[in-house]
Amino acid sequence: MEREQFYEEMKKALMELKPEGMEVTFIKVDKQNRMGLHGCTLSMPDAAAAPTFYLEDLYEAYLNGTAVEDIAEGVIEFAKENNRAVIPNGIDVVDYESARKHLGLMVIGAEENREYLETLVHEVIEGLALVPIVFIDDESSTGCIKIKKELLMAWEVTAQEVMEEAKQNSARVMPPTFQLMSDILRENSNLDLDGLCVPEEAELFVVSNRYFVCGASVAFYPGFLESIGKALGTDFYILPSSINELILLRDLGQNPLELLQIVKTVNRTQLQPEEVLADAVFYYSRSGGFRKILPMEAILE
């Protein structure tokens, strides 16, 4: 079955199988690195939050052998279990005083998401877009709500005020972590890092937050990279392994062009499109701060 036909069959199955009272809406959705997705939201009456599925992802399940009716039933069951009467932590997203205590940060590629970023509060630093979010954490799951520009009017604040608040809050709302890669591998034996082939003598560090959600943003926490530079006693490369974490390695004279190829390979083979941060290598110098290594620099070095 071709993609467009699948979309129509899936819409039909969802409408036929949904329980009484469930509302199914189909909308075009933009996400980082994925524009114009076919979104499908299944909400129960009086729900404050409901899950959204993407027909593009459901089509992949169909191609892998799952019947349309089985996919629809699974989606509906998941939606029934994950509609929320209230947003966790009692957050009222429309009320700034309620939301501001939960402001954090995420980072996405600026050039790859230029059109998408037109709707969001953001700040571009070295080709990366820093985006404030409302971070949601409860016992069963975590999530985030990106701050759209249209929300600023309801909040009666400026984009700059929201960005500064998010920067100052992030270390409290999404506490940073700094670990040896080898320690993480020992604790998580199921991690698939086959695409990350770096010299054995290179000691790797992983920075993220406690939740490993939107953790690449820790690079922009005030003073965080500076503190790592002091702890390591050296400058270091920063590999954007995904939007959820970064990999750091001391500058031991590695070839930046080879590091860039590693990043590109991981992005193409190990990540979902929305997880990719950038096809780039970054560098932190204790004297010069954070910067992106430009392609010509990589060749010259």
What's the helix and strand layout?
Elements: H1 3-17, E1 23-31, E2 34-43, E3 52-54, H2 55-63, H3 68-82, H4 96-99, E4 103-109, H5 114-117, E5 123-125, E6 128-137, E7 142-146, H6 151-155, H7 159-173, E8 176-180, H8 181-187, E9 204-209, H9 224-232, E10 236-242, E11 245-250, H10 256-269, E12 281-285, E13 289-293, H11 295-300
Antiparallel strand pairs: 1-2, 2-3, 4-6, 5-6, 6-7, 8-9, 9-11, 10-11, 10-12, 12-13
Helix pairs in contact: 1-2, 1-3
- The ordered H/E elements are HEEEHHHEHEEEHHEHEHEEHEEH
Number of helices: 11
State the share of residues found in helices, binned by percent: 25-40%
The average pLDDT is 89
Q: Residue ranges: pLDDT <50 for 5 or more in a row?
A: 189-201
Secondary structure: number of strands: 13
Globular, elongated, flat, extended or rod-shaped: what is the shape? globular
Strand content: 25-35%
- Helix/sheet category: alpha+beta
Radius of gyration: 21 Å
- Strands in their spatial order, largest beta sheet: 8-9-11-10-12-13
Intertermini distance:
50 Å
Counted up, domains total: 3
Instruction: Please outline the major beta sheet.
Output: 6 strands, antiparallel
Summarize the structure.
The protein contains 11 helices and 13 strands. It has 301 residues and is of the alpha+beta class. The protein has 3 domains: 3-82, no CATH class; 88-173, no CATH class; 176-300, no CATH class.
